[in-house]
Amino acid sequence: MWWTSSCGRIELRILRKQAEACSHQGPCDDDVEALSKEPAIAEQLEAIDPEILRCELREYGAWDDKELADHEQNLQRVLWIAAGDINEDIRRTK
Description:
The chain has helices spanning about 15-20, 30-35, 40-45, 50-60, 65-70, 70-94; strands spanning about 1-5, 10-15. By secondary structure, the protein is mostly helical. The chain has a two-stranded antiparallel ribbon.
């Protein structure tokens, strides 16, 4: 499945099964981190420009500038957001 950020400058291709594994009740941190290390996902995350990612995440208003300075955490955040959005879309279409 394809996920595109609201600014349209970040795109990720994530399998439905992967998205489901990273968006569920309870903490998802370990699942998101494991997914981020899968080669196909890691390659996509590597290609994301840090400044574009900070700008995108800033729009959510959930993290301050100090938190957004951590690019590795930002990659985890965007992957978690993408998984959640994909799962929400799947539930809406059922």
